[in-house]
Amino acid sequence: MQTLYMDDSYLKEFDGVVKTAKGRFIVLDNTAFFPKSGGVENDTGIMIRKKDNKEFKVVFVGKFEGEISHEVDAEGLAPGDRVKCTIDWDRRYVLMRYHTSAHVLSGLFNREYNFMITGNQLTTEKGRIDMDMEKLDADLISQGIKKANELIEKDLPVEVYYKTRAEAEKDPTLFKLAMGFPHDINTIRIVDIKGFDAQADGGCHVKSLREIGKIIFMKAENRGKNNRRIYYTLQ
Length: 235
Ligand SMILES: [Zn+2]
What we know:
This protein has four helices and 15 strands. It is α+β, with helices and mostly antiparallel strands and 235 residues long. The structure holds zinc ion. Zinc ion binds next to helix 2.
């Protein structure tokens, strides 16, 4: 299956053919729907069957046994059906802004303070990152977020390209984020905030940093030894 969102995160509509349909769970020949993965929420949207214009709502998208499965709100689609799909762009765009902001924060805290990001959870409401900071220091976190916002103001471009696995593995900094990223065996997709931070990553990102807006620090929590959890929103 082709994952269209990997080459074009701004693709909002696409045509597909149903490969398998198990009740309400549909696999297509290609998709621009991002499946819930790597701590990032899934896309939603609609799928319209071309032969009769019947509309199915895509309520969840997940990855199961290497395939992206679309859960729709009603049964009825069958293999071979041609569909026109539209993703809920408002939702996706907010998730893209959060995802790129998480890369900015992880790059910033790693570079400036030598902390590693150990996890993240990104929704349309807020972002959460976990960091291996020894003692909770809210002032330092605020300072880091201020620096992240200054970087966003520089509006660096965000580029996506591919490297061979052998080539990528020569640079361990590409694998700083302990997040799952779908890719095939020999090709690693790189998301590169130019001149700042490049990561192996399978997600959807904005094209330039200013699209993120502004990061607003909400709160930080202690989550056990060497684990500080930071919550933020975007404005
Ligand atoms: Zn990512």
